[in-house]
Amino acid sequence: MDIEIGELTSTVxxxxxxxxxxxxxxxxxxxxxxxxxxENEAREQRAEAERRVTGGVSQERxxxx
Length: 65
Description:
By secondary structure, the protein is an all-alpha fold. It has one helix spanning 23-64. It is elongated.
């Protein structure tokens, strides 16, 4: 069964993508990104501290030889 539509009327609205984010949603996104950034920096600092300790132990061991 074929249906023929002779005429179609439609309304198209253009919206700004940024307008879809409410202030509450934007704050949640910013908080999440900030927390993740802080965690990454803390992880890097822990890794750097561990490398310094490991490097110091290695250096002491080499000096004892």
